[in-house]
């Protein structure tokens, strides 16, 4: 088990790069099968999902598109609970199959807000694909169809997730060491 220090916090390895790659490949295969013939639009939520989205897209074997949206609700290690849309969506979503690509779903409030926002643009369907979900933290009812890992309520960094903008580049996922 490896240890990293980021700013004032210490983290230890919780999910290896190999485990992540295996689950991302499996998600890509499942999405390709489920959306065969649909040309889905993948909407990656920045900043955290950019590495996951890039790796996932390389596993998709069907025609598809990708775009990005930026929502902010974090400060340090705590969600502020206030969601702010920073960068919007320019594509016409009418009649499209949308797959939201998120790094982590915790309370579900950000995802709920995003689904509500997308719903006003008349998509054919909206699906959630997340790298991580923390079931015990969910505050809203969400249909999370695609999830690589269900994890306990620990603060994590790496593979796109950060602590005060640091640690995104780590190939493995690390949990805050108490």
Concise account of the structure shown:
The protein is α/β, with parallel strands linked by helices.
Describe the structure.
- With 178 residues, the chain is of the alpha/beta class.
- Helix content is 21%, strand content 38%.
- The strands form 2 sheets. A 6-stranded mixed β-sheet has the order 5-4-3-6-7-8, sandwiched between helices.
Please give a handful of descriptors for the protein shown.
178 residues; alpha/beta; six-stranded mixed sheet; 10 strands; 21% helix; 38% strand
Write the layout of secondary structure elements.
Elements: E1 3-6, E2 9-15, H1 17-34, E3 41-46, H2 50-57, E4 65-75, E5 78-87, E6 97-105, H3 109-119, E7 125-133, E8 146-150, E9 156-157, E10 173-176
Which class do the helix and strand fractions yield? alpha/beta
Query: What oligomeric state do these chains adopt?
Result: single chain
Q: Note poorly predicted spans.
A: none
Shape: globular
Strand content: 35-45%
Q: Say how many strands there are.
A: 10
| Number of discrete helical segments | 3
Distance between the termini: 15 Å
């Amino acid at each position: 088990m490896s240890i990293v220090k980021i700013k004032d916090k210490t983290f230890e390895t919780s999910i290896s790069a190999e485990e992540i790659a295996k689950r991302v490949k499996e998600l890509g295969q499942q999405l390709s099968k489920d959306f065969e013939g649909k040309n889905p639009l993948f909407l990656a939520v920045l900043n955290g999902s950019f590495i996951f989205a890039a790796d996932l897209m390389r596993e998709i074997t069907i025609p598809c598109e990708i775009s990005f949206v930026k929502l902010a609700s974090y400060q340090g290690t705590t969600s502020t609970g206030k969601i702010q849309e920073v960068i919007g969506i320019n594509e016409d979503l009418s009649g499209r199959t949308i797959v939201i690509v998120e790094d982590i779903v915790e309370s579900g409030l950000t995802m709920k807000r995003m689904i509500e926002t997308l719903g006003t643009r008349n998509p054919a369907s909206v699906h959630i694909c997340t790298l991580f979900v923390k079931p015990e933290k969910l505050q809203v009812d969400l249909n999370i169809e695609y999830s690589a890992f269900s994890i306990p309520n620990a603060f994590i960094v790496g593979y796109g997730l950060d602590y005060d903008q640091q640690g995104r580049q780590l190939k493995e996922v690390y949990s805050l060491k108490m």
